[in-house]
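User: My instructor asked us to take a sequence, write out its structure as tokens, and then describe one feature of it. I'm not sure where to start. Here is the sequence I was given:
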Amino acid sequence: MTDLTRDAAWVLTVASVLSITYELYRATIKAGVSEHDSMRGFVVQLPSYAAAAAVIGVLFVGGDWAAWVGLAFCVVVILVSITYYNPRVMLVRRPGLIDWFEDLVFTGLMFVAATQLLYELC
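Assistant: Let's start with the prediction itself. The structure tokens for your sequence are:
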């Protein structure tokens, strides 16, 4: 495992912890604001966090293909964030400062990890 792959794994770890904490906040403190803000909505997202944990594990273990897996994951998450989450989920949540902060930091961290992994592959 190289430093870039390990650092990307840590960036994805921070992003995932931030995201799951934020979604738990929306499911509890902001419950009922939108159809996405409920414990059911939170539980539905758990497989995506399991996938993130698996990718992070692959990056920490290393291997020739680990950077490819991590990069593909980051690109998919960035595309989902830009094309689905922001126009469909974020806007119906009546976002405030915390919501925009989490969204920008999370997506920014995905770009950081993707850049690190792309650099590793080059």
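For the description part of your assignment, you could build on this observation: The chain has a mean pLDDT of 96. Try explaining in your own words what that tells you about the chain.
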